[in-house]
Specification:
Strand content: 5-15%
Structural class: mainly alpha
Radius of gyration: 16 Å
Largest sheet: 2 strands, antiparallel
Mean pLDDT: 88
Helix content: 55-70%
Number of helices: 10
Distance between the termini: 32 Å
Number of strands: 4
Shape: globular
Low-confidence stretches: none
């Protein structure tokens, strides 16, 4: 906190950490674990590669790698502490509809249900990753961002079906995921 105040004259944005896009700095509370460092480093890497990435993709991918493993030179997201909240929302029918999640601006994403939005974005990216579609969606979205700043078009194209069908299949996939603190 002292360093953040002395270098940037600001208080922490989050108790975990954050990436300062304009000044290109990382703030990490390592007491929260190494996942925070990976999360914020992912933001740093994405900021140069896809600076226009909407919040669902930026936070979804950063959150995906909070808990991950290496397979050769590729990181793979693993289930983490965000899953129980998502499964509760799924069982209560209170998840944000996928089309709305993809269209959210940062203020809406971080307002009411912020934690759930992080969980939904993370697990949607994990769903894409598990199906081998995350690289395809990411690359096409980055290259053709101006055609659809939400990414819904690229998601639907990758799945070969409308977003509503993608959402239903994604919810079924979430229902089969498992995580416990002992994992």
């Amino acid at each position: 906190v002292k360093g953040l105040r002395s270098f940037f004259a600001m208080d922490p944005i989050s108790p975990y950490g954050h990436y300062g896009h304009s000044q290109k700095y990382l703030v990490i509370n390592y007491d929260t674990g190494p996942g925070t460092m990976v999360h914020e480093m992912t933001h740093a890497l994405m900021s140069d590669d896809f600076p226009e990435a909407p919040i669902w993709l930026a936070e979804g991918i950063a959150s995906l790698y909070e808990q991950c493993r290496a397979e050769g030179n590729i990181l793979k997201g693993e289930d983490n502490w965000r899953l129980p909240e998502l499964k509760i929302a799924l069982s209560q029918g209170s998840m944000t509809p996928l089309a709305r999640l993809l269209a959210m601006n940062p203020a809406s994403f971080r307002a009411e249900k912020e934690s759930l939005h992080y969980a939904q974005a993370r697990y949607f990216c994990k769903y894409l990753e598990d199906l081998g579609l995350l690289p395809t969606v990411y690359k096409e979205f980055r290259e053709r961002y101006s055609l659809d700043p939400t990414g819904a078009r690229f998601v639907a194209k990758a799945f070969g079906r409308p977003l509503e069908g993608v959402e239903g299949a994604g919810k079924r996939w979430v229902s089969y995921q498992h995580w416990s603190e002992n994992d």
